[in-house]
Amino acid sequence: MVPFAVGTVHAQVGDDSKEFRNRIDGDIGVGGYYARSVIRGKSERTQALPYAYFDYGRAFARIDTFGIKTLKVGYGYLELSGRVSLDGFKANTTSFRGLNDRKDPVPLGIGTLQETPYGALFINAFHDVGKSNGNLLEMIYAGQFEMPRLSVYPQIGAERVSRQYVNYLYGVSTREAVTSQYGPYQGGNATNPYIALLIDRTISDDWHLNIYVRHKWLASSIQDSPIVSRKTMDNAFASISYRFK
After folding, report:
1. What number is the average pLDDT over the span 218-243?
2. What is the mean pLDDT of residues 2-25?
3. pLDDT tens per residue, range 63-80
4. What is the CA radius of gyration of the chain?
């Protein structure tokens, strides 16, 4: 799955008896996902994958983020969550000979969705329990504009990733420098801002088309890596889903 930090405002915050009903409330469908790799020699990737954005009792799924709502906090809940990340890659090309494969991170942590009268605010703090042992923090604001049969959600956000996270994915160790064509490289912490837009088009009472695009600017500690060839990262998807109510 493409690693999105996407927020729509489908979820509803109300009293617990209404919020935590044991039934699906939200969207389930299938989508086509696109990612433009920043890794040197790796091309664009498209794939068909399930699409899910729903609540079920205290459990929730938000495309690539899944978890459980716990204590009431402000306009939302403190959440225990995990994320599906495909930031890893295989060093299976001639130009990467001598480098090790980068395993996908396994981010686990806490977060909250604050659905305020002025828009939705997503805050997440993850620790990679996988190979990098690094941290990822993110904050996203999503606005909402309603039109007949069409909802538009502009988003602005940023992620902060630790030095360990950056160096596992984009660094070149001293040992790898000896066996590959790249010199050693170790970067620092990275703050990556981005903008995004989600469009929700009603096809019928129960079926919806979602289109999402995101443009992320990479910090210099990632750009300067010898195995990185781009300064920005682009992601997109289009999905057809059934909305359970």
Report:
1. 96
2. 56
3. 999 999 999 999 999 999
4. 19
Placement of tokens 């790898």 in the chain? 176
How far is Cα 187 from Cα 175, in angstroms, rounded to an integer? 16
Give the pLDDT confidence score for residue 43 in this predicted structure. 76
Furthest CA-CA distance within the chain? 61
Place of tokens 């001293």: 174
Cβ neighbours of residue 213 under 8 Å, at least 6 residues apart? 196, 197, 234, 235, 236
* b (16+ CB within 10 A) / e for 99-138: bbebbbbbbebebbbbbeeebbbbbbbbbbebbbebbbbb
Which tokens hold the place of 217?
């600017």
pTM of the model: 0.88
Q: Characterize the bridge pairing of strands 65-73 and 59-62.
A: antiparallel
230 CB-near residues (< 8 Å, 6+ apart): 36, 38, 218, 223
Domains and CATH numbers, the chain: 16-217+237-244 (2.40.160)
